[in-house]
Amino acid sequence: MLPVKDLEAKKHMQISELLKQFSVCGGFTAKKLADGLEIMKKMLSEKDCTIFLSFPACIVATGIRGVLKEIIRRKFVDVVITTCGTLDHDLARIWKDYYHGSFALDDVKLAEQDIHRIGNVIVPKENYGEILEKKLQPMLKEIYEENKNLATYELVWEIGKRIAKEENAKESIIYWAWKNKIPIIIPGITDGAVGAQLWIFWESKRDFVINIMKDEHLLSDMIFTSKKTGALIIGGGISKHHTIWWNQFKGGLDYAVYITTAVEWDGSLSGAPPREAISWKKLKVEAKYVQIEGDATILLPLLFYALIDEIPERLREKTS
């Protein structure tokens, strides 16, 4: 029986200290966030643990892109599984700005003005599809001349290599994935603006292949050579499922931290809690896990900055 303790206000308190207080305050999601920090620290301290990161594209349209970039720059993870929109937003924001908007904006008026809305972020048309077409088609031509058969992670690295000279390259998730040779795997590669550019290019170069089976081969190698695996899973959808799906082939994840707003009662994979994954052997019975309910744009920075208070850089070389 642990007593509930009150939070204490302290001047210049580090975020890690705040989360330590969360761990004893007995308060609902706060305690889960503190538990998530301890699981992440354990994951990072395991010499032979391959760490997965999965997330949806929407948060890349926000300043949370900077947190995701830092996770990859600091080599806190070994592989990323995400959606095509991550490439869209990460690349577009190298060259153009996204802007503050509101959930309450009139979408009919926005459409008339050629402005897209992502929650409370707005994006002029020229800052999204148009800039991506202008920049990507010449890149794809160069890539095609060197390699006509690429996995999605290889495509991401090729793009990362070519944006390295851009002024804002070091703000990019893709740049650091290439720099650190961390694979970014996109199972639904055609489902976004970058995917549309790939299709446009393919219409004139039919021997250009984005080979998703090469992605699966890489995941197979990583899974079957890893002694342990862990995952930070933000949101749901194909990114979450592909992460836990592959881990069933080694008996399940050893560690998992979920951050989600989805509900369980509709039967969706996005809302399925870690304990459901145990029934599929996607998560081990003895795994250390937590599901933290809430908005990732609040919870992920708190978790990450608390983590780097205690572990500024990855403590080991990647073994995968």
Explain how this protein is built.
- By secondary structure, the chain is of the alpha/beta class.
- The chain has a single domain, classed as Deoxyhypusine synthase (Deoxyhypusine Synthase, 3-Layer(aba) Sandwich).
- The protein contains 13 helices and eleven strands.
- Helix 2 packs across helix 13 and helix 7 packs across helix 8.
- The longest helix has 18 residues.
- The radius of gyration is 20 Å and the shape is globular.
- The termini are far apart.
Keywords:
320 residues; alpha/beta; Deoxyhypusine Synthase
User: Tell me, what is the CATH class?
Assistant: Alpha Beta
Alpha carbon gap, first and last residue? 41 Å
Give the CATH H-level superfamily: Deoxyhypusine synthase
Mean of pLDDT? 96
From the spread of the alpha carbons, the general shape counts as: globular
Q: How many H/I helical runs?
A: 13
Short summary of the structure?
With 320 residues, the chain is an alpha/beta fold. It has helices spanning 15-25, 28-45, 65-73, 84-95, 107-112, 129-146, 152-163, 173-179, 193-204, 212-225, 237-247, 274-279, 296-310; strands spanning 49-54, 79-81, 99-100, 115-118, 121-124, 149-150, 184-185, 209-210, 228-234, 253-260, 283-293. The protein has a single domain (15-310), classed as Deoxyhypusine synthase (Deoxyhypusine Synthase), CATH 3.40.910.10.
Secondary structure layout:
Blueprint: H1 15-25, H2 28-45, E1 49-54, H3 65-73, E2 79-81, H4 84-95, E3 99-100, H5 107-112, E4 115-118, E5 121-124, H6 129-146, E6 149-150, H7 152-163, H8 173-179, E7 184-185, H9 193-204, E8 209-210, H10 212-225, E9 228-234, H11 237-247, E10 253-260, H12 274-279, E11 283-293, H13 296-310
